[in-house]
Amino acid sequence: CNVEFYPSFLDSIHFSPVLLSKAVMSSSSSSALEMEIFQYIDDHQSDFIKDLKEWVAVESDSVQPHLRKEVMRMMVLAADRLAALGATVNSVNLGSHQLPDGRVLPLPSVILGELGKDPQNPTVCFYGHVDVQPAKKEDGWNTDPYTLTEIDGNLYGRGATDNKGPVLAWINAVETFRALKLAMPVNFKFVIEGMEEAGSLGLEKLLEEENQSFFSDVDYIVISDNLWLSNKKPALTYGSRGNACFFVEVECGSKDLHSGTFGGIIHEPLLDLIALLDSLVDSTGCIQIPGIYDGVAALTEEERKLYGSIEFDLEEHRNNCGVKKFLYGTKEEILLHLWRYPSLSIHGIEGAFHEPGIKTVIPAKVIGKFSIRQVPHMDLSVVKQQVAEHLEGVFSKRKSPNTLKVSMPLGAKPWLAGVNDLLYKAARRAIKTVFGEDPDFIRDGSTIPVARMFQTITQKSVMMLPIGAADDGEHSQNEKISRYNYIEGTKLFAAFFLEISKLHRNSHETSHTETIN
Ligand SMILES: C[C@H](N)C(=O)N[C@@H](Cc1c[nH]cn1)C(=O)O
Ligand SMILES: [Zn+2]
Ligand SMILES: [Zn+2]
C-alpha cells in the first residue's frame, strides 16, 4: 500500500508555516492591559468552572434520538448565556430530519449571536458546538460523565473539551472585557450548533442563506474544536480531514432466529457482514477498496520536509492512546497517516447481540458502521461509488441470498487553509504572550464539517485555535480539559482579541495610506 505514488497536488496550498515562524516576530511580555485581563480571569476561575459544570450536566448527546430534547435544552442555555453577555441572539429553526428507521426528529436551532458593531473593529466570528458524543458511566468512566469532577487539576466530564469548555472559554473572554468595562477590541459573531457530532445537519443550508447577511461583515472565522498535537505545547491548526460515514446492512428475514434450530442451514447476516467488514482494510492499515487512494494528493518533497520539522513525541502520543504499538514507526509516517492520507475505521454493528452473557440468537438484520476520513483531493461521490462497488463485489462472491444495502448517510469534506494572513499571525502572537512559546502549526485528523463549509461559502479566512491538550480524550472515556488549559485558553482568546484588533487596524491604516498616496 504505497500511498505516495498518486497525482500531484500542493498547488492549492499557499502556505509555509516554517517561513511564517521565521518572519513573524512577537513579544512574550504582557502589556498592562493584558495583565489586568489575565488577573481578572485568574480571580474568576471558580465562576468559569461553575458554568462549565452546569453545561456538562446537560446530556446533550446529538447521536441518540431519545436525548434530542436535552440538546434542545442545551441550546436554550447557550442562547441565554450569550444574551446575558449582551449579545443579540437569533435561534434559527432548522426544521426536522428523518432517521434511517423513518422516524422524524426536530433539529436543534442554530444560534447566531452578535455583539458590537464598531466600524473601526474587525468582526470575528466564533464557531462552537454544545452537543456531545454519547457517554455512560458503564463505558468505563471513573466518574459520572455528566458531573464535572476535578481530579489533580483535570476537569472530567463529557463535553469538557469537546466542545463546551472551549465555547465557554470564548464567552468568558468576552465577559472579561465587559466586566472590566474595557472597550471591545473586536465585534463578535457567534455560530453555536447542536448537531456537530451527528454531522452538522442543516448547517450548510443556513450558512448559504446567511452568507449575504449575517456573514457579510465578518472578517475572520475562528473555530476552537480540536486539540493540540502534544499534551503541553499549544498549536494552531490549518487543516482537517473530512469524513464519509457508511452503513452496510445485511438482512435475511423479518425475525431473529434460534441458532440451534436454524444455525448451519442458513446464510447468517452477521457472517456476511463480518466478511464484508473484513474486506475493507488489511492488517497494515491499508484500505482495500480499489481506487480509494487515486484521488489522494501526492506528497511533495517540500511537504515531507515540513513533517520532519514538526515536534511530535511518539511515546507521549502512544501513552495518550493507551495502545502497545502504532502501525507506523516514525513520526513522519504517523503524522502523514493522521493528517493527509485517508483512514478507514469500523465503529460498530447495530443489531448484533452485544450485552454481557450469552444469547444463542441469529440476528435477522445487522448494520455495520464504518467511516473513511477524507483528504485533499478525494471526491465524496467517487468514494461512495467505490465503496458500494467493492462491497457489492465481495457480497456477490459469497452467493448469499440475503439482501445488502449500502448507504452513505454523512459526507464531510476536508479543509486546508493558507496561514499567511493576519488571523494566524494574531493567534501566534497571543499564544506567545500567554504560553511563552510559539505554537506548532498542525493539521488535524478529525473532522469539523463546518470548517470547509465556512471556507467555501463565505470565502473568509478560517482558523482553528485549539485550547485542549492531546490527552483530553475526545469521544473517549474520561474526557477532560485541564483547569490550566481552560483558564489559560480563556486568556489566549482575550489576548487574541487584542492582537487581531491591532493587526487589523494597522493593516487598514496602511492600505488607507497607500490609497491616499
Ligand atoms: C473534531 C471534532 N471535535 C469532532 O469530534 N468531530 C467529529 C465529527 C464527525 C465526523 N464524522 C461524523 N462526525 C469527528 O471528527 O468524528
Ligand atoms: Zn467537537
Ligand atoms: Zn467530537
Automatic annotation (TrEMBL):
Site for Important for catalytic activity, residues: 258
GO biological process, one term: proteolysis
Molecular function GO labels: metal ion binding; metallodipeptidase activity
Cofactor dependence: Mn(2+)
Family named by the database record: Belongs to the peptidase M20A family.
Entry note: cofactor: Binds 2 manganese ions per subunit.
SUPFAM superfamilies documented for this protein: Zn-dependent exopeptidases (SSF53187)
Residues that, per the record, bind Mn(2+) 1: 162, 197, 475
Keyword set includes Protease: yes
Organism taxonomic ancestry: Eukaryota, Metazoa, Chordata, Craniata, Vertebrata
Chain segments annotated as coiled-coil in the UniProt record: none
Active site: 131, 196
Matching InterPro entries: CNDP/DUG1, Cyt/Met_Dipeptidase, Peptidase_M20, Peptidase_M20_dimer
Binding site for Mn(2+) 2: 129, 162, 225
Annotated keywords: Hydrolase, Manganese, Metal-binding, Metalloprotease, Protease
UniProt keyword Metal-binding present: yes
Name of the featured protein: Carnosine dipeptidase 1
Domain Peptidase M20 dimerisation stretches: 241-394
Superkingdom per UniProt: Eukaryota
GO cellular component: cytosol
